[in-house]
Specification:
70% helix, two-stranded antiparallel ribbon, mainly alpha
């Protein structure tokens, strides 16, 4: 696992921005895959869905049930597209590094660069997604309850709860992002170690192939579960902001 990330530094004069090119590349690939799935699934709509349309309708119903388990559909229906986008994008991103993760290294300047991995194995990506959820929940809380009404929720049921409510907002964001990152990163690290063992000797290959296949299957399961958990928690946090029942 001795590798470095390919980076691009952009000098803005007053500051320098550093981009992880492998993360940018795999994010674009994940976005393209999600777009293609959505495009192919809705290209030829039929009253009796088959194939990809059937899959897309199942995803839509699945996300709808997540929303309805947290708030009434009249309120939560506006977040349906958000939920579909999150669960599909995160699921694809979680699984992207499994087939070739830890394999596509390109040597240059005496370093080995890893160009292919799951973008959600980068904490910057997961924390950005979590921060986006934080901003959206605050926005819809103000939009649907009004500035004054939403501000009052930080002082309920007692005024001394205000600092705890503020801490809770940041704690939720931190745990939301780090939970996703930790699970995906740990899975890819172990797959990389098993892949290195398999490539060392013929005995290592024989000894590592079964654990590697088993762990890859488990990683696929974890990838889908983490996409579900992230989407579910997003709707839970959203419900706390927009639903008067919470």
């Amino acid at each position: 696992m001795n590798h470095t990330a390919p980076e691009l530094d952009v000098d803005l004069g007053f500051m320098t921005l550093t981009f992880n090119l492998s993360t940018v590349f795999t994010l674009l690939v994940a976005a393209a895959i999600v777009f293609l799935i959505a495009f192919v699934s809705t290209r030829r709509l039929a009253l009796k869905p088959t194939g990809m349309q059937n899959f897309m309708e199942w995803v839509m119903d699945f996300v709808k049930n997540i929303i309805k388990s947290n708030m009434d559909w009249k309120t939560g229906g506006r977040f349906h597209i958000l939920g579909i986008t999150l669960i599909m994008f995160i699921a694809v991103s979680n699984l992207l590094g499994l087939p070739l993760g830890g394999i596509l290294y390109f040597s240059g300047d005496g370093h080995e660069y890893l160009w292919w991995k799951s973008p959600t194995a980068d904490p910057v990506v997961t924390m950005t997604l979590a921060s986006m959820v934080l901003v959206l929940t605050q926005y819809y809380g103000v939009k649907m309850q009004g500035t004054g009404g939403y501000a009052k929720t930080f002082f309920q049921p007692m005024s001394f709860m205000f600092p705890l409510k503020v801490i809770e907002e940041f704690a939720n964001t931190l745990t939301l992002g780090l939970r996703l990152y930790g699970n995906i990163y740990a899975g890819e690290i172990l797959l990389g170690l098993l892949g290195g063992l398999a490539g060392a000797t013929i005995f290592g290959f024989v000894g590592a192939i079964v654990p590697m296949m088993a762990w890859m299957g488990f990683s696929i399961f974890i990838g889908f579960i983490q996409a579900f958990i992230f989407t579910m928690l997003t709707m839970v946090y959203m419900a706390h902001k927009v639903s008067t029942d919470h």
